[in-house]
Amino acid sequence: MIKRIAIGLITIAVFAFLCQLIYSKLNEQSTVSLSPVPFFPAEPAAFFQFKDIRQTLRHFTETNMLWSDWTSENKNKELPFLGVVNDILTDSVFNTFFGNGEVFMGLYQIDSNQRWLMVKNIFNPLETHDSKKTIQFSFCNYSEIIPPFMICSNSEILLESFKSNLNITKESLNQSEFSKNMKLSTASAPVSFSINLSNEPDDVKRFFQADQWVQMDLEYNSKEIMLSGVSHQGNKSQLFKPHFSDFTFLKSLKIDLFEELEIPLDSSKFLENRMVLSRINLIDNVQFQSHDVILMDILKMGNLDSFLISDSVVDPLHLNEESFSIEKTIFPELITPYFTNYDFNDKEIFRINNHLIITSPTGKRELIYQLEKLNQQKEEIDYLDVINKSKHPFSYHLLSNQNDLINKINIESSTLISELLVDFCSGLSWNLNRYDDRVYYSAVLYKNEKEKKDKSLLWSINLEHLTWGPFALKNHRTDSRDIIVQDSTNKIHFIGANGKLKWSKQLNGQILGNPYQIDAYKNEKFQILFNTEKSIYAVDVLGNFLESFPINLPFAATNEVVVLDYDQNKNYRLIVALENNKIYNFDLNGMAVIGWETPSIESPIYHPISHFAINGLDYIFSIQKSGEVNLYNRKGELRFQLKAKLDIPIGSDYFIEKSYNIDSTSITFENSQGGISQYLFSKESPILISDSIKNRDDNVCIHLSNNRSFYFCEKNKNSLKIKVGEDQDYHYTVDYPFEILSVNGDRNYIPVYNPKTQEMQLITKKFSLLPTFFRTSDQFCIYDINKDKTDELITILDNEFLICYQIGTTISSSN
User: Fold this and answer.
1) DSSP for 15-83?
2) What are the b/e assignments for 193-218, b being 16+ CB within 10 Å?
3) Closest CA to 702 of 738, 734, 665, 677
4) Cα dist from 88 to 82, 97, 526, 607, whole Å
5) What are the two backbone dihedrals, phi and then psi, of residue 203, each rounded to the nearest 5 degrees?
6) In this structure, what DSSP letter does residue 255 have?
7) How far is residue 493's CA from residue 487's CA, in Å, rounded to a whole number?
8) N or C: which end of the chain has fewer CB atoms below 10 A?
9) How far apart, in whole angstroms, are the C-alpha atoms of residue 806 and residue 340?
10) How far apart are CA 2 and CA 592, in angstroms?
11) Can you tell me the distance from the alpha carbon of 172 to that of 302, in angstroms, rounded to the nearest whole number?
12) Which of 379, 407, 380, 481 is nearest to 804 (CA)?
């Protein structure tokens, strides 16, 4: 009986403990999820929501060229704002508390001074900090932890007001406080913000066509800052996904945000002064595709067709159900100045009634399909059915430079639009659209390009006597890629994605081969590992050596160190061949790996050592100068030796194709005779699979792609053939002497290089030869370094200029 009671009491106690634990966790999660927005002081001048303020600021300041150019121009001026940004980026305490999560910030005008309050949810309870303890940040005087919030401000009044609001019931706050009408949209944008226009001058209100609030999402790439937003004539500012059009039927289509504008026309041709264009992103939810579509308003011309053909085309354009190639019309030339990034490749133009539509054939099919569902394709589409109403929809497009902005806005009377802001964005493309009682915005801030001769050039930096690199390496702090190079004095230089030199460091020799990236502390923070003849180095993104590095080698290295991670658990092994004809294996503590046999070899190894696994067995692949190939296990014991010696010149590419066992595995390689050989590991000798050598102008090479496959590139004087598989060939005529280079970075490109003029063209992964010529050398890499979904070409020119071009035609797949 007593035993049963004891068991029952224990069960009840365990159950009660679990209930308490669950309740505590749920209560903690509820507290942490509590939004700080309702507790902000009322009537801020502007209100911001950052997805991750630390990462956003780092990435933006290190990749965006507007910021880079602006800070360079103002580096000798005393701008307190720049100091605050720099303090935020370098304040480790701030990064600890405000990184990795949403941060809210309100800007307030107090006694003609700008004050701010910043708040973030933190986990509750904090184990290491008392709730009353103040944390001091370098850029502000007031901060406090009040679970679940971390608060900092440059105003004690604002901080105390926030604390006071925490003690007011949520119901009473909702009756009066501004946040009840604010719902920021941060599904994709790193920053959302609202602006209070109530105290702004009339010309600012006219610019926004609003009296109360404007709300926007902010996104950016390397060259531009994009804004999309909404305002309301009343006091509500809930951010929906708007449709920016006068064209009423578009409200019923499946579309994303788009631009709309009016453009001036040649009235002598078109018998009118302006045309309305709408650019939409049409969504196909069945096939998970989107289509870039441009729609044009009704043209009032009597004879439309005769004016749509360019001078080079004889036949008139008859648009009804049929489509016509856009390249044979005047519209690419007409539209490109306004939609600068619209890709006219493979686009067609067709007509529904009198309305012209530009899109791809698949986009046309999707548009007609959606119109048919709306039963609108057989009717005259009345775009302007409410034009005469008192609150008719309207569209406005402004393309202005800095002087235009100054003339349109009285900066001195505005608390929001300052001379500093206008100076930052020297150009503006502004689309404003209204229907019902809402106004929708689409804007692009950009740097005027008039001074640049090459629009594809992002930046350049002068670094003398460069001998190694460039290589693009991930930076976990900015979510971008930094560039590393080395000069003839053995100094390495680390350059940000915006072209600014971050740091330089002296080494004891030239780097051999490629660098590797590791996560030494297994915390998603990356370091760079490489070697000279004398040492192995590991450096973090700030230029600091890791503990135990550099590792001094007992003999000179003959090849680059490779980093092996057998089980993908970041238990790295550093393998390098030395001039005493032995292969060494080190760990990240700089110690020789216990159990490694340190195998001896017959002749030096200059090729990088590689690794693969078949059926759970590891093979460490090494090629000696003599052509002998040995494959070792994890202990350095000989696991397999090829019967044949392989004729692979230093620097040539090879491709190992694994099979179900080692005997049926094969290697394809460029041989020293300029042909392509293939060797099956169970055979006695390689076979020649491509030998097109007829004269010194001909050669054959292989090109390794991103998806672990390869192509054959056959050059014959001014012709190039790329063989993909056994039955797919692509032919090109190149009217200059050229070479095919291997790619460091995104191998989806095939570089066609003219060594005489030092110019390069690129063949894309879809095997189209891009028309752009880049001034470059054979030292280059290709990556999307600033995470804007557009690849960059970084190259060393004349051994002293590091140049970054934006390729700008293909969406990157390199990261």
Assistant:
1) HHHHHHHHHHHHHHHHHHT--SGGGSPS--SEEEEES-HHHHHHHHHHH-HHHHHHHHHTTTS--HHHH
2) bbbbbeebbeebbebbbbebbbbbbb
3) 677
4) 10, 12, 22, 45
5) -70, -30
6) B
7) 8
8) N
9) 15
10) 63
11) 64
12) 481
**Residue 809 DSSP code:** E
Other CB atoms within a 10 A radius of the CB of residue 656 amount to 15
DSSP string, 740-784: EPP-SB-TT-EEEEETTTTEEEEE-TT--B-S--EE--S-EEEE-
Strand positions, DSSP E, 160-271: 191-196, 213-220, 224-232, 259-264
Average pLDDT over the chain, rounded to whole?
77
Under a CB-based contact definition with an 8 Å cutoff, are residues 738 and 754 in contact? yes
How many whole angstroms from its chain centre is CA 543? 24
Query: Which position has the token pair 């370094």?
Result: 785
pLDDT tens digits along 261-270: 666 665 555 5
If 0-12 CB within 10 Å is exposed, 13-18 middle and 19+ buried, where does residue 182 land? buried
346-349: Cβ within 8 A, 24+ apart: 348/323, 348/324, 349/308, 349/317, 349/319, 349/323, 349/324, 349/325
Q: What angle do CA 284, 286, 290 make, to 5 degrees?
A: 25
Give dist(CA 677, CA 692) in Å, integer.
12
Q: How many degrees, rounded to 5, is the angle at CA 671 between CA 667 and CA 677?
A: 45
Cβ atoms 795, 774 nearer than 8 A: yes
Query: CA end-to-end span of the chain, whole Å?
Result: 68
Strand 324-325 relative to strand 348-352: parallel, antiparallel, unpaired? Answer: antiparallel
Q: Are 518 and 570 in contact (CB under 8 A)?
A: yes
What residue spans of 74-194 are helical by DSSP H? 80-90, 92-98, 156-166, 170-176
pTM for the complete prediction? 0.70
State the CB neighbour count (10 A cutoff) for residue 450: 8
Query: 340: Cβ–Cβ under 8 A, 6 or more apart, which residues?
Result: none
Contacts of 286 (CB under 8 A, 6+ apart): none
* Spatial distance between the Cα atoms of 782 and 455, rounded to a whole number of angstroms: 18
Selection from 239-248, 307-316, 752-761, 806-815 with the highest mean pLDDT: 752-761
- Which token pair is 285? 């939810």
The residue-averaged pLDDT of 398-407 equals 64
The number of residues in the chain equals: 815
Please give the Cα distance from 205 to 426 (Å, whole number).
21
Structure tokens at 373: 């569902």
Paired tokens of 592: 């020789």
Q: In this predicted model, which residue has the larger pLDDT, 690 or 465?
A: 465
Whether the Cβ atoms of residue 466 and residue 800 lie closer than 8 Å to each other = yes
Q: Say if residues 335 and 341 touch (Cβ distance below 8 Å).
A: no
pLDDT tens-digit map of 612-665: 999 999 999 999 999 999 999 999 999 999 999 998 888 888 889 999 999 999
For tokens 């392509």, name the residue.
676
**Which among 449, 458, 429 has a CA at the least distance from the CA of 441?**
429
Query: Distance between CA atoms of 113 and 106, rounded to whole angstroms?
Result: 14
Location of structure tokens 């069960």: 11
Whole-number Å distance between alpha carbons of 762 and 776: 12
Strands across the sheet containing 324-325: 259-264, 274-284, 289-296, 355-359, 348-352, 324-325
> Which residues is 789 bridged to in the sheet?
none
